[in-house]
From TrEMBL:
It is found in: Cytoplasm. Coiled coil: none annotated. It comes from Streptomyces ochraceiscleroticus. Gene3D superfamilies: 3.40.50.1400. The lineage of its organism: Bacteria, Bacillati, Actinomycetota, Actinomycetes, Kitasatosporales. CDD domains: Ferrochelatase_C (cd00419), Ferrochelatase_N (cd03411). Transmembrane segments: none annotated. Belongs to the ferrochelatase family. Fe-coproporphyrin III binds at residues 59, 128. Fe(2+) binds at residues 191, 289. Pathway: Porphyrin-containing compound metabolism; protoheme biosynthesis. Its EC number is 4.99.1.9. This is Coproporphyrin III ferrochelatase.
Amino acid sequence: MSEQPVPAPYDALLLLSFGGPEGPDDVVPFLENVTRGRGIPRERLKEVGQHYFLFGGVSPINAQNRELLDALRKDFAEHGLDLPVYWGNRNWAPYLTDTLREMVRDGHRRIAVLATSAYASYSGCRQYRENLADALATLEAEGLELPQVDKLRHYFNHPGFVRPMVDGVLASLAELPDDVRAGAHIAFTTHSIPTAAADTSGRPEEHTEGGEGGAYVAQHLDVAQVIADAVREETGTAHPWRLVYQSRSGAPHIPWLEPDICDHLETLHTQGVPAVVMAPIGFVSDHMEVKYDLDTEATAKAAELGLPVARSATVGADPRFAAAVRDLLLERAAAERGRSPERCALGALGASHDLCPVGCCPARAPRPAAAGADWSGAPTGV
Ligand SMILES: CC1=C(CCC(=O)O)c2cc3nc(cc4[nH]c(cc5[nH]c(cc1n2)c(C)c5CCC(=O)O)c(CCC(=O)O)c4C)C(CCC(=O)O)=C3C
Ligand SMILES: [Fe+2]
């Protein structure tokens, strides 16, 4: 019999995500939440609103998080891990503040947080920590006793995140017509971010200059290499690959990471590449950035070029990902109890830090961020 897993000091897990609209009336208020004070051009907002209206005003992201919640609860129950799982979002109901209030009222004092963003970056890491700080400030103003919240480490290189994506790329290669499969390229995609934000992503010693992309780009390149190697091992073919970007936002004069997936497809086509697998390694589920930017826009671009493409699956609610979350939680719990747990990680970079140090993924305008070394609002002690 295996030993009972020990989640202590944690008494609950919070799944922290982006949130998305659930009907046409939600779209504009959702976009206002996302872009509050961020200087996104009106034109871009109108355009993105259209992406959502094309899908009936419903983002797939909330349904996907509900599935992930189910998968987590099932995995925990099957492995004797007695820990309640809650869900809260940055931009739509259930809102983080409401969920955190419910957790405190339910008596939770020490909360592990899993963000649905696997990599370092302001948007994917610090902004979630700022959201936690804001939520805690609200609860404090309401006179509630604040819990301690700890954000689980980046899991981009955890095998439970990477292996389902290897299977996804293999399945996409199998989908391509026989005569073009061997020559197919893999385009690993992620969300474009401003090069200035990419250069300052990760710990200060990981920051770069001149658009090299800091930890954000290094982490994606590491995952892409691991997947490409695993695919070569499985198929015997070394499919050429490149990391490219999608979902660019912001003003045109500000440099963002490039090339864009659509431009990349055009370049490959010009070079005579016969087929492409688009692998959205930057995303945890097939939400709107995948459904619109890849499955709609980039796929239309490929059709126009006469270039066969297939888009590989994100991890979503894969049971291996749910198991990875359990592993990350138990690993961190053990570390908080003073043990030295084994830390699963593939690739060259090794397991990411538990606690974001000062200067990790800085904001343009500094604001309080919880669950990092620069958080002073946290109660001390276990
Ligand atoms: C790095 C990153 C991730 C991956 C990490 C993570 O998953 O967190 C991500 C995820 C997502 N981004 C999403 C949606 C949007 N992102 C926007 C805007 C922006 N994203 C940015 C970055 C990222 N975004 C940035 C630098 C901006 C510019 C404005 C700003 O600095 O804030 C906008 C505004 C309109 C626009 O400009 O596109 C929308 C609507 C959805 C929900 C999809 C759905 O509804 O299914 C998800 C999961
Ligand atoms: Fe985004």
